[in-house]
Amino acid sequence: MLHRLFTRRISSTHRAGKRFLSASQAAQPASSANIIRGNSEFTDPQRYFEDDDKTGIVVTLKDKKDALEKALGVFDKYGVSLSHIQSKPSKLCEKSKAYDFYLDFERPFTDMCIRNVISDLSKISKNFTIADPSEVSCFPTSFYDLDKTGKKILSEGDGIHEADHPGFRDEEYKKRRDFISELALKYEMNDKEIPRVEYTDAEVGVWQHCYSKFKKNYTTGAVKEFNEGLAQMEKYCGFSEDNIPQLEDISQYLISKTGWRIRPVGGQLSQRDFLNCLAFKVFPSSQYVRHHLVPEYTPEPDVIHEVMGHVPMFANEHYADLSQMIGLASLGCPDHYLSRLGTLYWFTIEFGLCMEAGKRKAYGAGILSSFGEFDWCFSQDRNAPKFFPFDCEEIAENHGGFPNSSVQPYYFISESWEDARKKIGEYCDSIPRPFNVSYNEETQTIEVDRKIKGSY
Ligand SMILES: [Fe+2]
């Protein structure tokens, strides 16, 4: 039985790409363990931790009154002090209730008394693994670290490379877009204001075209909270048919309402950089406007997508929490988990649908800022898209290959967006990381329960 459990554990962690050692491997001589660690993609396996002599262990214990007490007694017996303890319901033993305990102690894995601890623990636990911290990537921990993030756009003009799009051939448009991007690239997090853009008549014309049509869609297809947020934007942030709102005004309002702010960016960020910003309650937003010849389509996120699609929901504290949860989970998480978080983000924040009073409604920005996507996902046509119930594991594991330049072939509908938020929270909690993070709003820093070596 124990062997089967180890096999399952190794299999699941291998799938996740996480390097854990099974109990039998952990009991091997240090040289063998070092060989396993030597497979790490990093040349210096623990370079991100100051405490090189710290070891992390995951112990699975039955949900019994004295189970934890017995396990902790083993550490007492060998005089090993724990520096961190955290528990999560175990996925390993679905039928019989059990918990995974993440324990850190200030001794190297090679220490002889740790071998004794491991040997004793193996007799009382359903499973245990040694967590190798070598896969931890460095990540921003200060609000001001986002200055570096905001300047790393994927590549200049990356979003308008579609040769059949008018923006690709229009030199004047590209010059204008670059000018607005440059304003964002110069922006620093401690600047007094986000630069205001004086939009041209052509740009305002594109906005006008979109604004009135979007509002019609919202009355029938957007969740209640989106319409409430939009009403606030119209009242306090300059949203109107004739005016493209300024990011500065939106940001000031959001700061007072939910603590979120906007950070202007000059183009698309990498998935990791983008998600990392959300941890700090910062939403990266472009400021340029799509090409006037194709006002209903843009090959890249423009200010219309950002402020019409995303911003109204950020006025709702609980919805904003959903974005921050994904952001916090993205900090230092392994690449394969990052792409799963990106997929969850895609099918919720971008293309999320949910039920509201028995009707299907949209809360995803990609639907609410696109005429084609909106019509498609609410179409009664028999060729219309497929709809599936919202399931985090299913989405994250099996739907990473979504299209990003055409309408979605399928959507996931949750009971409500709060239900999606709850399930994503549980998914984020289940991501194995050898440390925990939280955001301190007062100091605008990420607090990590292990010291990170070096600077971001
Ligand atoms: Fe978006």
Automatic annotation (TrEMBL):
Keywords, sorted A to Z: Iron, Metal-binding, Monooxygenase, Oxidoreductase
Molecular function per GO: iron ion binding; phenylalanine 4-monooxygenase activity
Limits of the Biopterin-dependent aromatic amino acid hydroxylase family profile domain: 124-456
Organism annotation: Euplotes crassus
Keyword Iron in record: yes
A Pfam family it matches: Biopterin_H
EC numbers: 1.14.16.1
Cofactor(s) of this protein: Fe(2+)
Annotated family: Belongs to the biopterin-dependent aromatic amino acid hydroxylase family.
Principal EC category: oxidoreductase
Binding site for Fe cation: 305, 310, 350
Lineage: Eukaryota, Sar, Alveolata, Ciliophora, Intramacronucleata
Listed name of the protein: phenylalanine 4-monooxygenase
